[in-house]
Amino acid sequence: MKDNIILTGFMGSGKSSVGVRLSYLLKKTMIDTDKWIEEKQEMEISDIFSAYGEKTFRDMETECLKELIETASGQIISTGGGLPVKRENQRLLKKLGMVIYLKVTPEVVFERLKTDNTRPLLQVDDPMERIKALLAQRSPVYESCADVVVDVSDQPFEKILGQIKEAYERFCQRA
Ligand code: S3P
After folding, report:
1. What is the pTM of this model?
2. pLDDT tens by residue, 107-149
3. Domain with 99 in it: what CATH number?
4. Ligand 1 center to residue 45 CA distance, Å?
5. From CA 37, how far away is CA 57, in angstroms rounded?
6. ∠ CA 66-151-82 to the nearest 5 degrees?
7. Nearest protein CA to atom 11 of ligand 1, as residue
8. Domain count across the chain
9. Distance of alpha carbon 70 from alpha carbon 96, whole angstroms
10. Whose CA is nearest to atom 4 of ligand 1?
């Protein structure tokens, strides 16, 4: 088991912004699995989806996790929202470190992403319906993968960061 902090959760749950703030607070570097894939493929996520499809993108996420297990330690890893859905990725996440689930309501996701066009899965006629359906399907997976669940819908950043920092200190003592 490694000592990374892994941020999981739905699109728009704030994994990247929480991750950046956490990296300042804990003086750790941050890796983003979406960025890792984009750099490796030299393509944007939406182009990867349209050129190769979602299944291939999920395999790229698996490849990313396998490499991070070899190379990352004491880092913050922000993950794509669908990454934990694939069973193999759930096992790999556990090996990679302490898994945090940033829990958010569909309404907050909708508000944050209503003008975003970089998430291929939400480019549909009724994004709210899609958000609700995906969240209902994924919530049990996020919950079961997580060492710690943090409700982020109406908490200020300081509280969110405080909870993660405390949990990480406990995690490191245990390890
Ligand atoms: C996805 C979430 C995205 C990105 C891709 C698929 C998903 O990442 O990996 O568009 O399936 O939920 P963010 O959660 O960072 O938006």
Report:
1. 0.97
2. 999 999 999 999 999 999 999 999 999 999 999 999 999 999 9
3. 3.40.50.300
4. 8
5. 9
6. 35
7. 82
8. 1
9. 9
10. 80
- Contact 11 CB / ligand 1 (< 6 Å): yes
Beta-strand (E) ranges in the chain?
Answer: 4-9, 30-32, 76-78, 97-103, 148-151
Strands across the sheet with 97-103, in order?
30-32, 76-78, 4-9, 97-103, 148-151
Q: Which range marks the domain in which residue 150 is found?
A: 4-174
Atom in ligand 1 nearest the alpha carbon of residue 120? 10
Atom of ligand 1 nearest to the CA of 15: 15
Ligand 1 atom 8, closest CA: 80
Calpha distance 3→175 (Å, rounded): 8
The residue nearest atom 9 of ligand 1, judged by CA position, is 80
Pairing state between β 97-103 and 4-9 = parallel
Tabulate helix, strand, coil % of the chain (nearest 5): 60, 15, 25
Q: Where are the alpha helices (DSSP H) in 72-120?
A: 87-96, 106-113
Atom of ligand 1 nearest to the CA of 10: 14
